[in-house]
Amino acid sequence: xxxxxxxxxxxxxxxxxxxxxxxxxxxEEQAKLLGLYIADERMIxxxxxxxxGTMDPLSPDCDPLLLEHAEDLRRQIREQGEKALRxxxxxxxxxxxxxxxxxxxxxxxxxxxxxxKQVDLIVMGRHGAGGRWSGPLLGSTFEAVARHAPxxxxxxxxxxxxxxxxxxxxxxxxxxxxxxxxxLHLVEGSDRQLIILxxxxxxxxxxxxxxxxxxxxxxxxxxxxxxLVKGHAAEKILNTAQExxxxxxxxxxxxxxxxxxALFGSTVDDVVHxxxxxxxxxx
Length: 283
Prior knowledge:
The protein is of the alpha/beta class. It folds into two domains: 4-156, Rossmann fold; 165-282, Rossmann fold, CATH 3.40.50. 43% of the residues lie in helices and 21% in strands. It contains nine helices and ten strands. Strands 3-2-1-4-5-10-9-6-7-8 form a ten-stranded mixed beta sheet, with helices on both faces. Strand 4, helix 5 (140-148) and strand 5 (153-156) form a beta-alpha-beta unit. The longest helix is centred in the first third of the chain and has 31 residues, at 64-94. The protein is elongated, with a radius of gyration of 21 Å.
């Protein structure tokens, strides 16, 4: 299912946690890992953009000291990036995982989304170095990738642990079906437990969706634990994940009520914000 996995890194502890998750999945899936380090041009030149013309060597307003500072910072980031990518290659080789690494410069989210066109999964930490990937509603980079990536995004929050119990939130939507399909793939041929959770939030079709999901699992030879509960979707997903000691939560980027129609939307945003386990967001 996952032939190529993209993991953007920035040298932060959160990005190395994402690397460990990506390597673990790549080893299990026999997938190729693509490591990507991006020099954020906006961070490099931010001090210089405050004064018009300071970055244009032909401009009379050009400040050579600011220009030199920006170039020094660019070299430092390049060195840091190359070291991080070397470390990633070493970790992958130790785990016997095929890896390719790339260094790019530009707007981080745009470059990640460009690379996303050639992979099947993106693995990212929710925060980055200096909080660049954090902030209100998880920050612009993570949010942009999770909203617009054409492939699932795995948001990591802690060191990887063996996947014994998977929780998939199911409401019958196309994205939920994709999340269920991935969950079934990860469970097939293993001793993992799958929990299918449908939250009855007042919609008449929720009981039917719950039985549909169990039937889809049965067709794949998987005897999943089916839960149909009433309440607030995000709250029930988070509570169930904790009560069942789940190792991974899978959910669609939006459901029948299009949770992602405004920014992240209440359900997905709340789950990714508050989950203590990794969350796989399917689009």
